[in-house]
């Protein structure tokens, strides 16, 4: 219905354009007779150039008011005379209908073309929507994977930080232990030196004690030997 309304509007505009005097020559149409004759002169006795049907456009070359014949030019280019009574400046209904049918056909073709493009655009839109949906799902999956990876990385980072803090604490303790070890080594060196000195003193004391005991034992032995010798001499004296 809308297409028909547009067609009527287009035809109305066309009529306004045609009948506002833009055309160089007036055009008359064969009116309600089925067939009329175009003759070489202004009477029925002149030879017939051509017979034309209702709705045939004829270009007016000469029109004298009061005369029954009008000089016209056919679409073929031939010139002749036709009776005014069978001619009209109004476009015949068959011509209007034919033009409207032609316009409707053109508009229908245009509509079909537009509908075809619309269907193609709809298919393209569907394809784009499908591709977009697929890409959205792919992007969502990729984003989810990145979020999981980021969460894992944060967890690993936290674990590494805790390990670092532990190692840092241990390193401080190692420094303390190292300092303590150096102090113990120094003390051990001092103690070793003292032990060595004590051992030397002990060795000296032992050598000195052994000498004393040896001297004391020798004195006792000598004293016993001397007493024995004196005793033997006394016994010998008593025997004599």
Explain what the structure shows.
It is a single chain. The chain has a domain at 2-91: SH3 type barrels (Roll), CATH 2.30.30. It has helices spanning 2-22, 93-239, and strands at 27-30, 35-39, 48-53, 57-62, 69-73, 79-83, 87-88. α1 crosses α2. It has two helices and seven strands. Residues 13-23 have low confidence and may be disordered. 5% of the residues are buried. It has 240 residues and is an alpha+beta fold.
Q: How big a fraction of the residues is strand?
A: 5-15%
Query: What is the element string, with H for helices and E for strands?
Result: HEEEEEEEH
The first-level CATH class of the domain at 2-91 is given as: Mainly Beta
Gross morphology:
rod-shaped
Topology:
Layout: H1 2-22, E1 27-30, E2 35-39, E3 48-53, E4 57-62, E5 69-73, E6 79-83, E7 87-88, H2 93-239
Antiparallel strand pairs: 1-4, 1-7, 2-3, 4-5, 5-6
What is the gist of this entry?
The chain is α+β, with helices and mostly antiparallel strands and about 240 residues long. The chain has helices at about 1-20, 95-240; strands at about 25-30, 35-40, 50-55, 55-60, 70-75, 80-85, 85-90.
What are the main properties of this structure?
7 strands, alpha+beta, SH3 type barrels, two-stranded antiparallel sheet, 240 residues, five-stranded antiparallel β-sheet
């Amino acid at each position: 219905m809308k297409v028909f309304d547009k067609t009527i509007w287009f035809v109305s505009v066309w009529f306004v354009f045609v009948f506002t005097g833009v055309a160089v020559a007036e055009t008359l149409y064969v009116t309600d007779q089925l067939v009329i004759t175009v003759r070489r002169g202004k009477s029925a006795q002149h030879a017939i150039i051509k017979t034309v049907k209702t709705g045939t456009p004829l270009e007016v070359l000469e029109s004298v008011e009061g005369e029954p014949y009008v000089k016209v030019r056919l679409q073929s280019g031939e010139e002749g005379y036709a009776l005014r009574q069978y001619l009209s400046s109004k476009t015949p209904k068959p011509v209007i209908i034919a033009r409207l049918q032609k316009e409707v056909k053109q508009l229908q073709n245009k509509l079909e073309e537009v509908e075809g493009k619309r269907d193609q655009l709809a298919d393209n839109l569907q394809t784009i929507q499908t591709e977009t949906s697929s890409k959205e799902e792919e992007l969502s999956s990729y984003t989810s994977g990145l979020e999981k990876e980021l969460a894992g990385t944060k967890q690993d980072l936290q674990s590494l930080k805790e390990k670092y803090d532990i190692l840092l604490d241990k390193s401080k303790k190692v420094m303390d232990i190292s300092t303590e070890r150096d102090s113990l080594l120094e003390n051990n060196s001092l103690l070793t030196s003292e032990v060595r000195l004590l051992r030397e003193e002990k060795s000296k004391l032992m050598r000195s004690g052994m000498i004393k005991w040896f001297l004391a034992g020798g004195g006792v032995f000598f004293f016993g030997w001397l007493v024995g010798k004196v005793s033997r001499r006394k016994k010998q004296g008593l025997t004599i």
